[in-house]
Amino acid sequence: MVNLEKVIEGLEMVDDIIDCYYNPETDEIFLSNIGEVEDLSEDEIDELFEKSIILPTQYEINEYQIMVDFIDTINNLEIKNNL
Fold it and tell me: Residue 76 burial (CB < 10 Å; 0-12/13-18/19+)?
């Protein structure tokens, strides 16, 4: 299960230069410059990135589209129309 608090923490760390990743297997957040900070081999770094999900930047999140997508999941027409 994805830990929402960890994802939010990661989203807060994202900027224009460094990407942030979430590894659901280990429930860890790490930055794209992890090779500069941690003592990991190239293979370990590659494996870490393969198993992880890149988190979007603030420019990639479209709040309006998120709302529209949510409304499309509602089956009750009255509630759907109100939203």
Answer: exposed
Q: Which of 5, 43, 6 is nearest to 21 (CA)?
A: 6
Identify the domain containing residue 38 by its residue range.
4-82
Q: What is the pLDDT of residues 11-45, one digit of tens each?
A: 777 766 778 888 888 888 888 877 776 788 888 88
Q: Are strands 20-23 and 28-31 parallel, antiparallel or unpaired?
A: antiparallel
pTM, entire model: 0.58
Domain count across the chain: 1
Q: Which residues, including other chains, have CB under 8 Å from residue 31's CB and lie 6 or more apart?
A: 13, 18, 19, 20, 21, 37
